[in-house]
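User: Predict the full complex structure for these chains.
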Amino acid sequence: MNTYFVILVSSLLMNNFVMNKFLGICPFLGVSKRFETATGMGMAVTFVMTLASFVTWLVNEFLLIPFKLQYMQTIAYILVIAVLVQIVEMALKKVSPSLYQALGVYLPLITTNCAVLGVAILNTDSGYNLPESTFNGFCAALGFTMSLLLFAAIREKLALAKMPKWMDGFPGALITAGLMAVAFQGFGGLI
Amino acid sequence: MAKKQNFISVFFNGLIVENPVFGLMLGMCPTLGITTAASNGIGMGLATTAVLVCANLLISLLRNFIPEKVRIPSFIVIIASFVTMIDLFMKAYLPALSSSLGMYIPLIVVNCIIFARAESFAFKNPPLLSIADGLGMGLGFTFAITLLSIIREALGAGTIFGMNVMPASYQPMAIMVQVPGGFVTLGLLLIAVNGIRKLIEKKSARKEAA
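Assistant: Here is the predicted structure of the two-chain assembly.
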């Protein structure tokens, strides 16, 4: 039970994917203008990352290691993720059209979200077993969603504030993110 | 596009006009993740350039054979193959750089720049132009992240490429090479680049009026 607790706390606060590891920055900056879209993206990412951690572990254990194909890791993982995203998209369309409507636009974007491939590679590197990998994928995605939502909430308020013209848009967003990262640094050494 | 394109114009378009980092805001993860030392910046930039040129060339050669519907998976396979080659090559010949870049090398696969260029340029243009686009975009990316990493390394560690550049009394600001420094430096750099761009635009507008 202890390992799981450490995974949860560390991926939420100390090793947050966005704030401490610089993974998934593109969607973090790209879809954080509105809280609603950020929620949709966060949910879609959480779904895919958990599934991807599960499947890539199986692929690694039962395909790559027995056939000594570890050097094909990158290709195998990215293909798994691309296929997974496609399947999730088709399944959602069939099973829950309303959820598909909400998440649809974000799903194709997830293939190129480096947090998804990143968590798969990290799981393999840290030698987690199947439940640990899946849990780590889920928690990392939660951490990503948390920082995305926090950032989106700040940006929504910021849009109403009077900003100097040269700070508008990306520069302002980046500096805001920098200040947020300072706050997250305070969590370092928690465990 | 109405304007006639040649090798040079496409190359400079990527390098300056549509610089992937400052103009298009693509490829943010490596831009922020590895720019803690100037050597990392150059290494990452050149590795990405190599992948970009090779992937652009191959995709452009295959553009008449790849069906429209399966183009995304095909791009992924092509890009991932080149990234694996570069990864293995760097592990063999540049082990120090490879270990300091760590998992960001396999993550070149999901660098949006490569994907975006494959989709919006290489799939529609002949091979030679695609090489020019790959080179321009790649070197533009390299330039941007090297600049960023030089600033961060100089302020955060007092060195550039490992050589001391600051006076001995300089206290390195550790925060510059940590996460917040990355965000803030890029933000400030963007403000500067936007400012310079505006100045140039104003100048050329005045020239046209005169």
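Chain A touches chain B through 43 residues (CB under 8 Å).
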